[in-house]
Amino acid sequence: MAYFLLFCHVIFIGLLSSVSSRGPVYRPPSVEQLTNRFPRIPITQGMSTLFGSSNIHLKGNGSYADIILDKTSGSGLVSKNTYYHGFFSAAIKLPMGFTSGVVLAFYMSNADVFPHNHDEIDFELLGHEKRRQWVLQTNMYGNGSVKTGREEKVYLWFDPTQQFHQYTILWNNHHIVFLVDNIPVREVIHNQAVSSVYPSKPMSLYATIWDASEWATKGGKYPVNYKYAPFVASMGELEMVGCSMQKTSSPMATAGCSTNATVSSLDPVEGKEYATLSKQQMAGLNWVRRKHMFYSYCKDTSRYKMMPAECGAQ
Q1: Catalytic residue flag (residue 151)
Q2: pTM for this predicted structure
Q3: Cβ atoms of residues 82 and 240 within 8 Å
């Protein structure tokens, strides 16, 4: 009997993985590996320096890059082309240690072209205010709808500082899906309630690390402590596929995304298999939201006396 109980205990422990500061959590369910469907390209092929060039260190013949925050500067990369819909992914390993106030953003935006009515799709990885733990925040703006923040926050089910993990944005006319290691953590369905604020214009892909003390830590209550600098984030396994346009084109030049060519040559995620989540993906999404989500703007009644229209429609 004792041997049987010991065996059960070992099996139970094997189903768990530890996360810094939070103790054990169940392993995620199995899902389709969407990132295996698309080619990976070197950082140097798809992106160029946005700012902080001295804090960007290329590795592996340009396949990987370290982006660094220290006392002198943060740093960032931006895609060489803009995209209208598509699949955008990178494997990222976050800085270790005390990272309060540090933010790593992997996101899409066109604020440089449309400063007053821009679109944005955001992964924001937030250094925690008190504990040595990163928090994942997702957000979305469309047509300059910045007065309504659409943030959701989840605790990760792994330590993001120990290994590379994949962060993915799938954006098409049907929905926006945020995925971590191919597991959906959020889906924004393109329905009538959200259509006026659904991203609708070509965007660039960005990866940045910066000092967000004033924004991310209650007005600077827990600022970046540069005693722990440099803060080094590593990224690679870049995937950028979609309807791409050169940045010299007109900002609204989406002619290349019209139906004049086949779907496969325009938008690789417009097909039926990308229109809705599969049963496996829905199970993964429900698992994340049930076990790991701790904030959603749609439940923030102190912030919104009247909830945004999309909150009751999804």
Answers
A1: no
A2: 0.88
A3: no
Q: Looking at 32, 120, 237, 310, which residue is catalytic?
A: 120
- DSSP H or E segment with residue 211: strand 204-211
DSSP summary character for residue 41: B
Counting other chains too, the contacts that 108-114 makes at CB distance below 8 Å and 24 or more residues apart are 108/83, 108/169, 108/171, 108/199, 108/203, 108/204, 108/205, 108/206, 109/203, 109/204, 109/206, 110/82, 110/201, 110/202, 110/203, 110/204, 110/251, 112/204, 113/201, 113/251, 114/144, 114/201, 114/251
CB 242 within 8 A of CB 87: yes
Which tokens sit at 31? 């899902």
**25 in Cβ contact with 16 (< 8 Å):** yes
**Catalytic entry in 124, 152, 187, 270:** 124
d(CA 203, CA 87) in angstroms, rounded, equals 12
DSSP 173: S
Distance CA 268, CA 36 (A): 13
User: Can you read off the two tokens belonging to residue 224?
Assistant: 């970046």
Sole residue written with tokens 């009247």: 306
Cβ-contact 67, 235 below 8 angstroms: yes
CA 1/CA 287 separation, integer angstroms: 33
Indicate the SS3 state at residue 263.
Answer: helix
Q: Which residues pair with 250 in a beta bridge?
A: none
Contact 93, 202 (CB under 8 A): no
159-209 pLDDT per residue, tens: 999 999 999 999 999 999 999 999 999 999 999 999 999 999 999 999 999
Residue-wise pLDDT tens digits, 92-117: 999 998 899 999 999 999 999 999 99
237 is catalytic: no
Q: Where are the alpha helices (DSSP H) in 28-177?
A: 43-46
- The SS3 of residue 14 is helix
Digit-coded pLDDT (tens) for 210-251: 999 887 666 667 899 999 999 999 999 999 999 887 775 555
CB 74 within 8 A of CB 52: yes
Look up tokens 């494997």; give the residue: 91
